[in-house]
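Appendix B. Extra example for self-study. Work through it before the problem class; the solution is given directly after the inputs so you can check yourself.
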Amino acid sequence: MSGWHRFANPTRFSRLSARILPWALALTIVLFAAGLYLALVGSPPDARQKDTVRIMYIHVPAAWMALSTYVLMAIFSGMGFIWKHPLADIAAKNCAPVGAGFTLLALITGALWGAPMWGTWWEWGDARLTSFLILFFLYLGYIALWQVFEDPEKAARAAAILALVGLINIPVIHFSVQWWNTLHQPASVFRRGGPTIDPAMLWPLFIMLAAFEAYFVSVLLLRIRAEVAEWRVRALQMMQAEA
Amino acid sequence: MPNAGIIGLTVDNLTCRRGEHEVFAGLSCSVHPGDVLYLRGPNGAGKSSLLRILAGFIAPAAGAVGWDGEDVAVDPLAHRSRLHYVGHLDTLKPVLTAAENLSTQAAMLEEQADVDTALRRFGLGNLRDLPARFLSAGQRRRLALARLAAVPRPLWLLDEPTVALDAGSVERLETLIAEHRATGGMAVIATHTDMNLPGAYTLELEGRQRVAAP
Amino acid sequence: MPNAGIIGLTVDNLTCRRGEHEVFAGLSCSVHPGDVLYLRGPNGAGKSSLLRILAGFIAPAAGAVGWDGEDVAVDPLAHRSRLHYVGHLDTLKPVLTAAENLSTQAAMLEEQADVDTALRRFGLGNLRDLPARFLSAGQRRRLALARLAAVPRPLWLLDEPTVALDAGSVERLETLIAEHRATGGMAVIATHTDMNLPGAYTLELEGRQRVAAP
Amino acid sequence: MSPFLAVVRRDLLIARRQGGGSLLAVAFFVVVAALFPFAVGADPISLRQVAPGVIWVSALLATLLSLDRLFQADFEDGSLDVLALSPQPLFFTVLAKVLAHWLVVGLPLVIASPLVGVLLNLPVEAFPVLVAATLIGTPALSLVGAIGAALTAGIRRGGVLVPLLVLPLYIPTLIFGVAATADPAHAAEPLMLLGAVSLVSLVLAPLASAAALRLALE
Amino acid sequence: MSPFLAVVRRDLLIARRQGGGSLLAVAFFVVVAALFPFAVGADPISLRQVAPGVIWVSALLATLLSLDRLFQADFEDGSLDVLALSPQPLFFTVLAKVLAHWLVVGLPLVIASPLVGVLLNLPVEAFPVLVAATLIGTPALSLVGAIGAALTAGIRRGGVLVPLLVLPLYIPTLIFGVAATADPAHAAEPLMLLGAVSLVSLVLAPLASAAALRLALE
Ligand code: HEM
Ligand SMILES: Nc1ncnc2c1ncn2[C@@H]1O[C@H](COP(=O)(O)OP(=O)(O)OP(=O)(O)O)[C@@H](O)[C@H]1O
Ligand SMILES: Nc1ncnc2c1ncn2[C@@H]1O[C@H](COP(=O)(O)OP(=O)(O)OP(=O)(O)O)[C@@H](O)[C@H]1O
Ligand SMILES: [Mg+2]
Ligand SMILES: [Mg+2]
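Solution. Structure tokens for the complete assembly:
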């Protein structure tokens, strides 16, 4: 129950993450190199969109990652809440800034893409766009909640409650394109009946997604390790102060 | 583990941690029907924290609190229904009258309650229709304590109950506690001042956790 | 009318009314440099009300409060700048550390103040960087009292200052008051408990307002 | 009287004594809505176009403003401790407080909504739907808002955080409410969805709020 | 350091420690502004029409929400007594607290207003006027709101009066603010009137607030 103190001991996590990290980092670099080459040079320009289609290779993976990071954050939160495992809490906490970053990236690239495609940066009537902005606010609220609690154990539980409740918004975002008439195009990859995108564009897209995924894993592990180290130092200081 | 067969409140090897600071550790004691336990110790020793653990508001970092031999964490609702907690805060709504404050509290705690008798026991009879915002410090405190008299519950957890009370009110409280004990009630009382409760045990906090004989 | 020529605080034929209720009437007394005046009486006698009148927070229904022979209502700002009032509430911001709480208070009251010495005088030296939300009841009280030591002012109005203090802290407060008196300071103290302040006068409230010799 | 009813009665009594709970919410609702004729210009067509949205946003904000102290007041004066010692699960205590809040704030908003409809030139045929939609939707506003209020109960001035936490969660209610009000001829589906949101909130919100309140008790 | 600056510094420190005073106000501003188009569901034309009103209502609400505890927090923990013993008239203490509040909430709103303008499709030529208007108008919002906050602190008397008093007092600021923003070509007159409102508030609001606070001290 007194979770945050267990970091005084070396954990399995440190050893495991130390083993995974180099691979994840290497994979990130390789996949980004390959994906960006294919996306910018190797893939054909779109018949209608010309070269602006290349924004897609950033925008779409970023949007997917933004959503899946939230789900992962909620899962970690649930684990931390139920089993009171501090590592799950720290993982959830550190998902948030990364996920908010993905969300912002998708928002910006979407806006940049929208200017030539729809003739507007931003379209309020569009449910996909606005609900995605809401996702950004959810991330911000989650981060803010962590900030206002002084006691990390309390903060973890409060933030977990919020993350789990906010999970309800995810399907709203995903299905918003179906439920409302929007400018934004409906799902074209992950849909019933298979993807409708040309394979020449699909492959670079998947490689970029894998690159984003590897990047996410690397950053998350690095952040968690940094925070665990910080707690270990704090615990040592406390022990010295009380001795 | 709380020992089976023992009647009353048992505290078993309790550790309390607030933030990163360990307030006390390995604390054990028990309170049986008719017992009063004083919690004593300097400011910051953990008296208030212990009371909140006993009330089930804070989960202990280690150890357990038991009732009649069973860990109270098993059925927290049953535990919370058997105790009174009177802390530093006065739990009063300034816009409600003294009688309304007490009767709304009592109604939340119990189906039936004799509010007027309880008010009179604490000398608040003629203030019953005064809004709580007009009460003096000691009158507010007495009103907060009056729920002990209004709703019978076996375990009383009192955090510095005599604060702001005049001598007469302290006596009233002592009488109430004596009656409570006579009917098998128990009380754990954190205090810096002396009260007149014969046969009370004392738990000294801060480092040397030990139970002194009365 | 406050008498000209008298040095210190004079209370002249004071009446206090709260709502429609007359709390006390025709109260007179005076406090001279080096004096301590206890206010005693049962709950609701009007001790807190009197202190707030002396501080200039409440206007008396009749009578006057004087300083060095002049009615304080003439220059309320000057009066408020010469006194400390420590009431029931702890005046602390939970998000600020102990040191920040004290230094912001001191800065509002006075240009210069020695915060660290004041903290140490109340045994809060090692808690200086702990946010006030984590302090125990007695630690909070000590922090509120520390402004007496940080900012020198001649008149101290203290409403039950020993509440929640452990024995050591009460002694610290008594020492501080003794030093304050030695430099010509005055204190009016509402209290239900006994303090060790030799030569203090007592004003019994409730009906029989009279000053008992030390 | 059951503890549940005791809590409801207590909060209603406090609201009545404090005065202006309902009045504040309704006044706020009407003032915010009444501002829009200034902004949009009195052109009845464009006013009619924005009316459903304005009504719902105003209702939502009126609820939000009255919510932020729902648990904080009880926390600050220690009443939360007494509530926690009540012989019923915290779930029902939360539900009782939310019910009282809805009676004080939500219901008056429902009753005042036709008035705001008139101010904003809402077509006559939309009025029954507007009342139905607010009646079905405002409970969700109170319930979801309670989560934010509970999460910030133990933090002084945490109230400022409530809108940021709660507004994103209000979006479904807002969407379905506006959809029903804007197109009264096809209101059945959004009304049903609105009901679904309220029902889901009825279970999830007290659960989440009770868990959050336990933090404030520590 | 003068007592005036000490009060300002103290409130800024508390806001910083409490976390996100400014951020929350801005977030609230943006979230509320974001709700309207969501609800109004809009083509750019009608969105542009409501934009000035939405911006001002959002700014008003963001201010109002952050203000209501301006003095109450100090009242509840006894700090008001310490403030009252400061060697300066209560007038300046109030002014210092309002200044700190404006720095924490009002100024960030001014800075964020162009962002909201972009989101709401406000025409480009309106942006300088929007910034000027919010810069001139937000002090009035903080000042007038302080009266309500002071009355709530001594709620022992205030009760129902507070919302009924403050909301109407906000109307001039809103009307002139919206007028300036909606018609940037003829903004000079409403901007001047807005300035007049702020100036009058600068004198009257601390006076009224100080009087109200004295009641809270009793
Ligand atoms: C600020 C503006 C935009 C935002 C916030 C946004 C948001 C999103 C989101 C959240 C997704 C993931 C949907 C899901 O997996 O459920 C997505 C996917 C996608 N977006 Fe955007 N988008 C924006 C602009 C655009 C523009 C201008 C285009 C191109 C015309 C575009 C094309 C796509 C495509 C092709 C997908 C993949 C769809 C799929 O296969 O599921 N987006 N966007
Ligand atoms: N508006 C009012 N109407 C009627 N009576 C009031 C009003 N305001 C205060 N009182 C009464 O005034 C009296 C004075 O209270 P005060 O706080 O001064 O007492 P005190 O001597 O400090 O008591 P304690 O020892 O409890 O602190 C109390 O009896 C209180 O009930
Ligand atoms: N989050 C925290 N971080 C560090 N220390 C904390 C935290 N919360 C509480 N404490 C400390 O825990 C200790 C226990 O406080 P508690 O209120 O239980 O003491 P107490 O014995 O009741 O004291 P008092 O006599 O003053 O009422 C205090 O020293 C307090 O400073
Ligand atoms: Mg204590
Ligand atoms: Mg008193």
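Self-check: Chain D has one domain: 3-217. If your reasoning did not lead you there, revisit section 3.
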